[in-house]
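Why does residue order matter? Because the sequence determines the fold. Keep that principle in mind as you read this record.
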Amino acid sequence: MSGDWSRLLASPDYLGDLYDCTPPSADSCDPFYVHIDERENSVTVGFDTRILPVNVPKEWHERGFNAFEFCLVFEGIEGLRVTGWDSTAAERIDMTVSPEAFEVILGVPGSGIMFRASTARLARARAYLASDSI
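Structure:
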């Protein structure tokens, strides 16, 4: 996994303030949602983790939240390739960030989603109470 994932999410524009600049690793985040929008030329990816932010609203503690999810919207998509999506593909996240683009790979060779995006933004972040059973 590229360190680009951590550097991106540690930014105050993403999850840096909530996680005190130490966001969860890609290995601890499960992609649970992918939406490809050809009208907006975007891909939205939702991630779920059991690693709660360190700087959370008092309400989150009071309500006993134990899970956190966030969605990243990638825009200006080029080179989108979808070769399947299953539980194996959802186990691997790789992201490379350069000044020109975000290179995103969700999956493994032969099964996954790959694309290049000109921008990325945090669209949603929320904590919730999840069941302990898997």
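The beta strands are 30-37, 42-49, 67-75, 78-82, 93-97, 102-108, 111-117, 119-128.
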